[in-house]
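We emphasize that the prediction below concerns an isolated chain of 196 residues; any contacts that depend on oligomerization or on bound cofactors are therefore not represented. The input was used exactly as deposited, without trimming of termini.
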Amino acid sequence: MSRPQIPECRTKHYKGMAVMVWPIACCGCKKMTFIKRPRHMKLGKDIIATSEASITKALDGLGWSYKKHLHHIKCTRCTKEEKTMPTKVPMRADPPREIIREARRKIADLLEEVYLTKEGMYADAESDVTVGETLKYPAAWVADVRVMLFGDGGESQKGSQRSRDIDLLEAKLSDLEHTFTEHLKTFRSDIEKLRG
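Result of the prediction step, given as a token string:
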């Protein structure tokens, strides 16, 4: 049978008076609080029970939580965090579905329509994802069949054009930055000449 964990009383000074207090620490964040021992409390053979009753009453008033016999004491913040923490439910991952022959055939048929073999890319904005969504199959299955039939080219015409447009804009931006830097150098040089 577990006994109450009653901390040893200490003398603390409040408003110029010495009072006896129990130091109580939160087992979560280690925050300390001091509970004043009532002056009228008798120090007899029931000291442990009366001390426990006084401490639990004070902890209830502070909103702190505790387990039987003052085990596992937690401050209000740690108590709230414990209540809001989601309970862990063991999750069992389902094994990935295996592609079947019929699915492979349907994917290959649709790829024949939307994949540009000579360019090595999808037509328009098509992709592994859009083909998978159309057939209600995972995109990974589509990618496997595409690689098997046509190779690694998973880009689309739109995606490829966009990449070229981005590269062109980045080159223009780099030229502008260089030109701007050169102009700044010239202005600073002119200012130094005028000052000197």
